[in-house]
Amino acid sequence: MLKFKQKFKQIAIQAFEPVLRFGSKSFCLKIFVLVSLFFAIAFYPSNLNYYHQRVKNTSTHVMIIEHGLRYSLTAAQFVVPILMGDAIGFTQAIYVAAGTTIATQSLKRALNDVHSGSTRLGERPYRADSEHNMPSGHTTMAASAMFFLFLRYGRLHLCYALPLTALTMYARIALKVHTFSAIFAGCVLAAIIAAIFTSAYKSKLNSRK
Question: How many domains is the chain partitioned into structurally?
Answer without folding.
Answer: 1
